[in-house]
């Protein structure tokens, strides 16, 4: 397993910490379901997490990094009940909202992780354990001096790819053109990954429209998807 020290040296969190105030409904859902459905990275036992035990079944597991308010996560979980959906987020209110969606749709295939997903991948996920990693609209850090804070960089992509099973997918989406170009270059340079398309992927109909995507569309920014597949034998 990759050590935390390498992750710390990068100085890049998987998502950016925001306010933690929850609504009354989110707080109620948190109190009712967090102990069953969620945990923090810091609370995980050392070594690989037993994903089958956590979900109560053996099934393909997809990690979503930066699940936001959880509406897209919930829709994906409803559409694919045969898949285990693990949502990683640092935003407490977003996790509370996701648990409200879990209640509404009576979902049994969603688990929640609070904290830095890079540390989770490095220290608590075995190589080849994941069927997919999804990162939709990560913080673009648009100022040039902040580009080094972007999540999609060579070290992170190498780490994420190592946790994918052969045939597993890395799916990225962004509405920032410069970041999209960076994503394409970084992922194309990772030898264990193969681009499923010749450059940008057509927008999958099954990917829900997030609030970030709706805002981008309203502001005239083009949304680009990238879908990479883990090569066999890598």
UniProtKB/TrEMBL annotation:
GO cellular component: tRNA methyltransferase complex
Name of protein: tRNA (guanine-N(7)-)-methyltransferase
Cross-referenced NCBIfam families: tRNA (guanosine(46)-N7)-methyltransferase TrmB
Family classification: Belongs to the class I-like SAM-binding methyltransferase superfamily. TrmB family.
Documented EC number(s): 2.1.1.33
InterPro entries hit by this protein: SAM-dependent_MTases_sf, tRNA_(Gua-N-7)_MeTrfase_Trmb, tRNA_methyltr_TrmB_bact
Domain of life: Bacteria
Entry binding sites for substrate: 143, 175, 210-213
Pfam families, A to Z: Methyltransf_4 (PF02390)
Phylogenetic classification of the source organism: Bacteria, Bacillati, Actinomycetota, Actinomycetes, Propionibacteriales
């Amino acid at each position: 397993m990759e050590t935390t020290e390498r992750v710390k040296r990068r100085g890049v969190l998987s998502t950016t910490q925001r306010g933690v105030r929850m609504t009354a409904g989110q707080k109620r859902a948190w109190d009712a379901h967090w102990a069953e459905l969620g945990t923090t990275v810091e609370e995980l036992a050392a070594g690989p997490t037993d994903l089958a035990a956590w979900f109560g079944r053996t099934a393909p597991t997809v990690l979503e990094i930066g699940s936001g308010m959880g509406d897209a996560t919930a829709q994906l979980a409803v559409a694919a009940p045969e898949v285990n959906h693990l949502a990683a987020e640092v935003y407490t209110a977003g996790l509370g909202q996701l648990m409200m969606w879990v209640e509404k749709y009576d979902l049994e295939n969603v688990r929640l992780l609070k904290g830095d997903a890079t540390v989770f991948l490095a220290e608590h996920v075995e190589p080849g354990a994941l069927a997919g990693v999804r990162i939709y609209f990560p913080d673009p850090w648009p100022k040039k001096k902040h580009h080094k804070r972007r999540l999609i960089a060579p070290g992170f992509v190498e780490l994420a790819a190592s946790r994918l099973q052969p045939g597993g997918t890395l799916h990225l989406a962004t509405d920032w053109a410069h970041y999209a170009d960076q994503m394409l270059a970084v992922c194309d340079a990772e030898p264990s990954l193969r681009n499923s398309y010749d450059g940008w992927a057509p927008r999958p109909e099954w990917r829900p429209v997030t609030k970030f995507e709706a805002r981008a569309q309203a502001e005239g920014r083009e949304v680009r998807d990238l879908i990479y597949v883990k090569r066999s034998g890598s």
